[in-house]
Amino acid sequence: HVLKCCQKVLAWVPVAFIALVVAWSYYAYVVELCLYSPNSYLYFIAVVYLVVFHLSFVMFVWSYGKTIFTSPATPSNEFCLSKADKEQYEKEERPESQQEILRRAAKDLPIYTTTASRAIRYCDRCQLIKPDRCHHCSACDVCVLKMDHHCPWVNNCVGFSNYKFFLLFLMYSLLYCLFVAATVLQYFIKFWTNELPDTHAKFHVLFLFFVAAMFFISILSLFSYHCWLVGKNRSTIETFRAPTFRNGPDKNGFSLGCSKNLREVFGDEKKYWLLPIFTSLGDGCNFPTRLVIMDPEQLAVSSQNEPAK
């Protein structure tokens, strides 16, 4: 119990680090650069900079908070085994008999994927049949719908319930870092040419540019990668391990075209796309597929010995 408590506390260290860096960047930009250095700015330029800075700051913090504090979506009760099936499943020692129980329980469920060996995907930890694109997170100790990955920087799973928030967090953090680096660049150059007044503010300016540029470069690659994933309608897990359908493994099995893939994450109303408000389509359990697949009952009773095509 003590070990688990320590792990939970330590899991917040990356989030606390990001919070401290963001809080310092706010102080360095607003107080040290804009307010304490009035000679460095023309008044109207300072006002414009502060307005744009606070807009990007608010959207960044908002989307980051939603990513952190949105609970991962878990499968509904219909995917849990009944009490009788659960008792029978635990009594059976042969995997074939256990699979037969799972096939009967899954015949009416909207499931189109299986394991690589054509078995029903079942979580022994949560004791439920996994919906398509659902995976068990060992850090959160729950099955997460459309799980992408567990992110230590938000101390949360990124999945169906908060994937949009995660993308917006990456986008607004990029804009935040880009704006800070671009507006501080001229003072960073003056620092190296000894044109900047010799005050403690110049060290804030120096580190502010370095930190903003470093985070921008690191986040840019991650954001670009997830934009590619959205266009292909894949999760990070599915990129490394293609889901297995009735016709065999297919990494593009859930792709419906770039436009529909985008709407699946951001919703149909474009006016809400840039706001950290949940607008994703579906319930996280039913996903349209690109393939013409057999119905769930036929899929559930598919032979494990049938070779993949």
Quick structural overview:
By secondary structure, the protein is mainly α. The protein has helices at residues 2-11, 13-35, 43-69, 83-91, 95-106, 163-192, 201-232, 236-240, 258-266, 296-300, and strands at 122-123, 128-129, 135-137, 142-144, 149-151, 156-158, 244-245, 248-249.
Description:
With 309 residues, the protein is mainly alpha-helical. The protein has three domains: 1-71 and 157-232, no CATH class; 77-130, no CATH class; 236-304, no CATH class. It is built from ten helices and eight strands. The chain has helices at residues 2-11, 13-35, 43-69, 83-91, 95-106, 163-192, 201-232, 236-240, 258-266, 296-300, and strands spanning 122-123, 128-129, 135-137, 142-144, 149-151, 156-158, 244-245, 248-249. Strands 1-2 form a two-stranded antiparallel ribbon. Strands 3-4 form a two-stranded antiparallel sheet. A two-stranded antiparallel ribbon has the order 5-6. Helix 4 (83-91) runs antiparallel to helix 5 (95-106) and helix 6 packs antiparallel against helix 7. It is elongated and about 80 Å long. The two termini are 48 Å apart.
